[in-house]
Design brief:
- The protein is of the alpha+beta class.
- It has one domain.
- 33% of the residues lie in helices and 19% in strands.
- A hairpin with a 6-residue loop joins strand 1 and strand 2 (14-18).
- Helix 1 runs antiparallel to helix 2.
- The N and C termini lie far apart (27 Å).
- 11% of the residues are buried.
């Protein structure tokens, strides 16, 4: 799983998690999601932001969390 933290920080920090075999496949998954009529807006913004960031790569059972708020 690929995890990008501290994204889309217009109000609070966001997080994106993508289950994929490689970072390139994770980008492709987000690109496909960006073409969705209802959720596409989020994935377009997320992809634009994470494209130049290194994700946290999780290869074994683990948990990731981000606290919200100001």
């Amino acid at each position: 799983m690929f995890v990008w933290e501290d994204i889309l920080t217009d109000y609070t920090s966001g997080i994106v998690c993508v289950l994929a075999h490689s970072k390139e496949e994770a980008y492709e998954v987000m690109k496909r999601k960006s073409e969705d009529q209802e959720e596409g807006w989020f994935w377009k913004w997320a992809l634009e932001e994470v494209i130049n960031m290194e994700p946290k790569v999780i290869e074994k059972p683990d948990a990731v969390g981000v606290s919200g708020g100001g």
